[in-house]
Amino acid sequence: MRRPFFCFTAALLVAALCAAGAAGAEKKLTIGMVVKAPSAPYIQAFMKAAEDKSKELGTEIMIRDGEGDSIKIMEIIDTYMTQGIDAFILGGAVDLRTLVPGIRKLNEANIPVAALDSSPEGGVVDFFLSFDLAQSSAKAAELFVEGIKSRNGGTVPKGVVLEIVGDNADMFTHACTEGFNSVISRYPQLEVAQGEGKWNNTDSHAVTSDLITRFGERIVGIYVQTPDVMAPGAVAAIEAAGLDPVNYGIAGICIGPEGIDLIKKGKMLGAVEQPAYDGAALAVQYLVDKLRGNPVPKIGDTVVVEGAIWSPAPVIKNQWADDGAFVVLQGALVPQEVGADDPRLWENKLTK
């Protein structure tokens, strides 16, 4: 049986404020957070949201750079545990299997865990907060195909589409490719040529340039898995070849300030927004609520917040971890569903 909607109402907000007032008499909670690549804008959104929400709730937040290295992340987890953290947030990693022993140490110490961006592939992750990578990628792929049709008289011609992916060692990449293929596989006349952009513009530029040289005029579209960290490199490669990005209908998921700029300049067709700021803020809220004995979303719930572009968010079982809830945030398609200047987009929150 489906559980009732888990909604934030005025009464619950009042109760939360009362609880926050009472928190002064409680132990001050400390959350340890590890992030991947703090220079990346979406990671900056994670950090700002965690800091903002921690300040609001009267908790302490410690943030360290894990450098995308699972061994370093586990060392930081050990340090945090020695320092007596009450909860832990993983703000991205590359090898999501190697770090599992660190997650299990936290589990054994009854320290609740939240994950953003990608989930550890083992251990108990109490809250994984992200959009559905496969579903969002399928949504972006539908837009990508519509772009191909609009440039070819309403039909999908025989040709090659480039798929610039992140890192094939990452569950994020596999989930995104799954969503992309669920759409592209309906068009057998399209050949997919894949290249690893390694989540950076230097590699995405190099691999896009190589694929353009290889396939030339056969290319009917270029899909960039995560435009926020790879589209500028891909666009630069297209332009360096004397070509116009408009003719390739770039789409993907995760926008970033760079993607917003490319959309406004007409060099990118569109992308699905990653609710980075909102996910991190909710992670802090849910961890604090769990520690204070307040209600938290359970599998089967649906979190509804009026006016939030990430709502409604169904809560399902985390398929990657041993156990835990996956709060599936909605990702808006920009600019088709939400304008590039919408103040609810984290890219605009960071730059205002």
Describe the structure.
The protein is an alpha/beta fold and 352 residues long. It has helices spanning 10-22, 41-57, 70-83, 100-108, 133-150, 171-184, 201-215, 227-240, 256-264, 276-291, 346-351; strands at residues 6-7, 30-35, 60-65, 87-91, 113-116, 124-131, 159-165, 190-196, 219-224, 251-253, 270-272, 302-304, 313-317, 323-329, 333-334. The protein has a nine-stranded mixed β-sheet with strand order 1-12-13-14-6-5-4-2-3, sandwiched between helices. A three-stranded parallel β-sheet has the order 8-7-9, sandwiched between helices. Strands 10-11-15 form a three-stranded mixed β-sheet, with helices on both faces. Strand 12 and strand 13 (313-317) form a beta hairpin. Helix 2 runs parallel beside helix 10 (276-291), helix 3 packs parallel to helix 4 (100-108) and helix 5 (133-150) crosses helix 6 (171-184). The longest helix is centred in the middle third of the chain and has 18 residues, at 133-150. It is elongated. The termini are far apart. Mean pLDDT is 93; it is low at 1-24.
How many helical elements?
11
Alpha-beta classification = alpha/beta
Mean pLDDT comes to 93
Question: Which geometry do the CA atoms define?
Answer: elongated
Tell me how many strands there are: 15
| Most strands sheet | 9 strands, mixed
User: Nearest-angstrom radius of gyration?
Assistant: 21 Å
| Uncertain ranges | 1-24
The side-by-side strand order for the widest beta sheet comes to 1-12-13-14-6-5-4-2-3
Please write the string of helix (H) and strand (E) elements.
EHEHEHEHEEHEHEHEHEHEHEEEEH
Q: Please indicate the percent range of residues in DSSP E strands (runs of 2 or more).
A: 15-25%
> For the terminal residues, how far apart are their CA atoms?
44 Å
The helix fraction, in percent, is 40-55%
